[in-house]
Known about the structure:
Blueprint: E1 8-11, H1 13-19, E2 37-41, E3 46-52, H2 55-69, E4 75-80, E5 83-88, E6 93-95, E7 100-103, E8 105-106, E9 109-110, H3 115-133, H4 143-154
Antiparallel strand pairs: 1-2, 1-7, 2-3, 3-5, 3-6, 4-5, 8-9
Amino acid sequence: xxxxxxxxxxxxxxxxxxxxxxxxxxxxxxxxxxxxxxxxxxxxxxxxxxxxxxxxxxxxxxxxxxxxxxxxxxxxxxxxxxxxxxxxxxxxxxxxxxxxxxxxxxxxxxxxxxxxxxxxxxxxxxxxxxxxxxxxxxxxxxxxxxxxxxxxxxx
Length: 155
C-alpha cells in the first residue's frame, strides 16, 4: 500500500503489540476500531498523528494552554470529512509501512485532509520536532525509542 501525507489510515494491532508502550493511544474503545491516524511521510519512516472525536474535552485543554503559553501547537481542532476532529500532534509516533492496515474511508471514499489543514499540521509537527532537538520534548510518546525499534526492523 502506498502511504501518502495528508490521508488517514488505520494501524495494525501488530505495531502496538510490538512497541508495547502505554503512552500510545489505546487499542480499542467501546467496541470500535482504533483511531484514525493522519500520515506524514518522512525519509525512511512514516509518522502518524492520532485523531479524536472528543472535541469538547480537548477544547478545554487547548484553552488552558493558550491562556498559559499564548498558543497551542500540540493539539488542533479542524474540520475533517465534514466534522470537527481533534488532531493530537502531541501523540504522534513513527512507524513503517508494514504496520499500516488500511486507508480510512467513509461511505467507501478515502479520507484526505485539505491542503490548508495539512500545511498547519505539518508546520506544528515540524515545530515540535525542532523543540525536541533543542531539548524541549512535548511529545507524549517516546518517539526516539519507537524510532529505534522500527529502524532496526529495516536493517
